[in-house]
Amino acid sequence: MKKQIVRTEEAPNSPLYSQAVRVGSTLYVSGTVGIDIATGQMAGATIHEQTRQALRNCKAIVEAGGGKLDDVVQVTVLLANPADFAGMNQEYAKVFTVDPPARAVAKLGVEMPNVLVSIMMTAHVEG
Known about the structure:
The chain has about 130 residues and is α+β, with helices and mostly antiparallel strands. It has helices at about 45-65, 85-95; strands at about 5, 20-25, 25-30, 35, 40, 70-80, 100-105, 115-125. About 25% of the residues lie in helices and about 30% in strands.
């Protein structure tokens, strides 16, 4: 199977990596942060604001890859500060309300100024 690069203007992008790559029915979404594409800035300074925006950005990428959030089977959340776990969970629970995907949470291993959270997803997309 050939890989398909997924790109949308509805989420932040970089020349250094693809927003997502789809191979067959599997969609791999790159680590996505809480940048508001309307402003080009972080959506806010709190874990709540950044998690909300990062999840919106991931949703846009998943949809660009032909899927929906219900198709997400695995999520990895990287936190700059482990103390933000509870706040991230509050926002995450608003998105994945029923039958949530498998998930791992770890400490962000690189320092990125003003970035509190990065979220990666894997989805199984039909069609």
